[in-house]
Amino acid sequence: MKKPSGKEYIAPWEKAFDAVLSPLDEFIHRQTTSGVLLMLCGAIALYIANSHWSEPYHHILKTYFTIGVPGFELSMSLHHWINDGLMAMFFFVIGLELKREILVGELADPRQAILPITAALGGMIVPVVIYMGINPDGHTRDGWGIPMATDIAFALGALALLGNRVPKSLLTFLVALAIVDDLGAVLVIALFYTDTINMVPLITAAVILLLLFAMNLGGIRRPLPYILLGTVLWVATLNSGIHATIAGILLAFTIPMQPKYDPKRFLSQANNIVDKIKDSYKDDTSVLTNGLLRTRIQALGEGVQRVQAPAQVLEHKMHLPSAYLVIPIFSLANAGIPIDWASFGSVITHPVSLGITAGLVGGKLFGIAGFCWIAVKLGLTKLPSDMNFKHIVGVGLMGGIGFTMSIFIAELGFAQYAQELLIAKTGILLASIIAGLTGFIWLYLTANTADYKQPE
């Protein structure tokens, strides 16, 4: 067989070997792209809901699908499969992000964590107070959790459009803030948006969760056992009365964060295998015909997998389907808001819509910027050297973009009230547009690239 010539062909994807992205850079890049896709799908859903396709659109969402075998069947509408099933995958990724940030990320150092945690607390407390001030009683009060959530994909997408006009530390601050915000939203869903508790499925879920932690402590690093037990955990959580997506968060926290190989051991083995690869390469340069070369390359690949933490590997792999599949589908299924322009004025002045808009736009701004200002003045924390309070105000405005999680909580809070759900979604959409535009304009006009130097 003729051996390949020495001329090397570099395919475009091979350039990935030269591209080194930190976990944060990779996260920001994917969330930014996801934000653009989310906007597109939201616009499509809005168009469909206000066109002649509206009736088939809602009919498809209400269609029931059943999986399982007789006696062990699970039947839900497509809308519920998306919100309870697919979104569990989204929450799983959120859980992995939370775990990484708490253990090794921006929230691992208490001194660095104080600022985004304080901002997130303010951004949750003040919007809730504003909403409950406008909706003090009645069933409309059930929507109090809606304005406390920030959509990280939308917010990062809007912030990234400013390019080098804003420091990278501002993106880092927003990521940490939004992750703490997501944790708050998850706790609210688990504690306050659960109607009834069924003890047998709940106990089953607890036993499975203990088993998952035991697997972690026992050194099991393969993802398949966790995924299989995680599926059972999801079914048990669904039947327990607690919202099924919480299973995604719980499963994420059981995934091992400790790799099988430490870097020192990996480096030693990798150097040894590379030497063997060089020896095999001298005999035959083609990986197709040189079996020994191929097996040693595979061994090196296996070592590369084992030196990485399983949780980080899964986060990397799951980000793609979560950001580019799950969230866009959720947007298509939930952003279809029929708008009656004749009654639009009464819709946006309804207490539910007013509470959400005031909470997301004003509450997030005063909560985030105000709590940060108080924390800095009290000496509890300080701003990064390349950030100022103009930047904090901009993030406070963009924090009012509450699309995904806000709609999700609205679906729970107003599940029995179709009219209020529609009004809530309208308020979320209006508030997110106002917050995104004002935040972008504020930062564009006030951010001065001369105030800091971007890293090369």
Give me some keywords for this one:
456 residues; mainly alpha; Na+/H+ antiporter like fold; two-stranded antiparallel sheet; 2 strands; disordered N terminus; disordered C terminus
Structure overview:
The protein is built from 17 helices and two strands. It has a two-stranded antiparallel sheet with strand order 1-2. Helices cover 68% and strands 3% of the residues. It has helices spanning 23-49, 54-62, 78-103, 110-134, 152-160, 168-192, 199-217, 223-240, 246-252, 263-283, 291-306, 310-334, 344-348, 351-377, 389-398, 403-413, 418-446; strands at 64-69, 72-77. It is mainly α and 456 residues long. Residues 1-20 and 452-456 have low confidence and may be disordered. Helix 14 runs antiparallel to helix 15 (389-398), helix 14 (351-377) crosses helix 17 and helix 16 (403-413) packs antiparallel against helix 17 (418-446). Among the domains are: 19-81 and 109-194 and 325-451, Up-down Bundle (Na+/H+ antiporter like fold); 263-305.
